[in-house]
Amino acid sequence: MKFFTLIFILLALVPSAAAKWDPQSLDATVKNAIDTFYTPGMSVSVVHQNQLIYAKGFGLANIAKQLPVNKNTYFRLASTSKAFTAAAIGVLVDQEKLDWKDLVIDHLPHFRMQDDYATQHFTIEDLLTHKSGLVGGAGDSMIWPEPSGFSRAEVVKNLRYLTPRDQFRQRYAYSNVLYITAGEIVEKISGKSFEDFVDQHVFKPLGMQCYAGDMPKTAVNKSAMSYGHRDSEGIYPIPRNAIQGDALMSAAAGGMVCSAAEMSKWVSALLNDAKMADELSDLSETSEQPQSSQQLPFSNKQLNKMWQSYTILGVSDTDTEWDSTYFRNYGLGWRLSNYEGYKHISHTGTLSGYQAFVALIPELELGVVVLNNGSNYGARSAVMQTVLKMFIDTEQKDWVAEYVAYQDEREQAYLSRGDTTPKALAKGTLSNKQVVGTYSDQWFGDFIITEQTTNKKANRLRITSSRMANLRGTLSAFQDASYKIEWDNKNAASDAFMHFELDVERKVIAAKLHPFSTKTSSSHEWRDMHFLKAE
């Protein structure tokens, strides 16, 4: 027997990477996950070796209407939108209209950070790497709860008011406002709205019926409602985040809409382009590199750029135990890690009422998309783990049970730290008359406090944001010159302190907000706001 014939026979006896692929078992896992993690519905697609081998929907897109989820149901992509923002920049780089190393200030002259060095050296690449020096989530109060009362131009203008915690490019801290800034650059350079550019130059070339901007009514009618869960009331809708068909200010950071079936086209094109990039890896970085056969709207060179490591991320003991992960980094709109010996490229998306997870293992030509309309990450994570492990020669676990145990463990650890609910230790010292008025912050706008008389409770204080429609609540005396804000929409924002400042005549002149907690923190959403009371 010839040597090569023997080799082929032996290879035929080795199980393929998909030997454990079991769609029926996956069906059962998805059903278990959505039931266990209080998730009304989920849609999943799996691409393997250039074939869409799985695309199904489970549960309900809308409970009230009893509308089922299918592979074409639309969900918000949340932060998995960021990869499309990076893609839009990549298209413009290929068009030679800008470069990743261009300074942001050269394209957006009104761009300013508090740190002058950062302002003068901030590149387009820096916008996407999450190491600006700001705290994680800085400026998110301009974006959420939606609908936002801020424009993208205002978000960029207000960056100068956000206080850095670290030096520029020092360490990772997740930023949505800088992805919105990247969206503004796309608009400035292309001469089109960010939404139109992504729809026409990213989605359209791939044949994807997905939306960065306005949606047709037919697509809106196929969209999933957003839901949350509380033990006291069960699953409840979150209408403020529901897909209405209108473009959102947050599009570049997390506001795009797509279905699992349409996202499979994105995953397939990326995998094919990655395969071609591997074949061309011996070419120099400056060599001319052709487009893939799937016609990604940007070149292999740009894909390699997006999938490089720029920022070091932490690795938990759980990551190592479950997936043999020893490094995690951030690229441009993507997270990169090792996963059971393979290169793993992924991103999650989290928004109240929607969860998303996109993952690729190029070496296995495997891509997975998980979209759902719940608020518990356990559902998407258990399903993603189940799929990926089916294609890897490793032990398969009951990942739903694993995530239940993991969340229980984290809850017990949280409870062991003690109750952080503040208890009043003194009486309030201010009258309603002293507190009523308009309080203005130089970048966030106004909070208006009024006194109302109702049948149920007389002389109730109400607080309303002039910019964010869902920030409305009741103000009540807590102790000394501190009040508690209880927001009407508990899902939109957590309760907060409002600490009033007085002059020597005990006249209220200003106020600051802080989370309603005994824990001291300098990284909360209100940290850069100082509200001065109008005369």
Give the spatial strand order of the biggest sheet: 3-2-1-13-12-11-10-9-8
Instruction: Look at the structure and give the mean pLDDT.
Output: 92
Distance linking N and C termini: 97 Å
* Rg for CA atoms: 25 Å
**Percent helix among the residues?**
25-40%
Give a count of the beta strands, DSSP E runs of length 2 or more. 21
Q: What is the tally of helical segments?
A: 17
Which labels suit this protein?
535 residues, alpha+beta, nine-stranded antiparallel beta sheet, eight-stranded antiparallel β-barrel, 30% helix, 23% strand, globular, disordered N terminus
Task: Describe the protein.
By secondary structure, the chain is α+β, with helices and mostly antiparallel strands. It is 30% helix and 23% strand. The longest helix has 20 residues, at 260-279. The protein is globular and about 75 Å long. Residues 1-17 and 282-293 have low confidence and may be disordered.
List the helices and strands and how they pair.
Layout: H1 3-13, H2 23-36, E1 41-48, E2 51-62, E3 67-68, E4 74-76, H3 82-94, H4 104-107, H5 116-121, H6 124-127, H7 152-158, H8 177-190, H9 194-203, H10 217-220, E5 227-230, E6 234-237, H11 251-254, E7 257-259, H12 260-279, H13 300-306, E8 311-313, H14 317-323, E9 328-330, E10 335-339, E11 342-351, E12 354-361, E13 366-372, H15 377-390, H16 399-416, H17 432-435, E14 437-441, E15 445-452, E16 460-465, E17 472-479, E18 482-487, E19 496-502, E20 508-515, E21 531-533
Antiparallel strand pairs: 1-2, 1-13, 2-3, 4-7, 5-6, 8-9, 9-10, 10-11, 11-12, 12-13, 14-15, 14-21, 15-16, 16-17, 17-18, 18-19, 19-20, 20-21
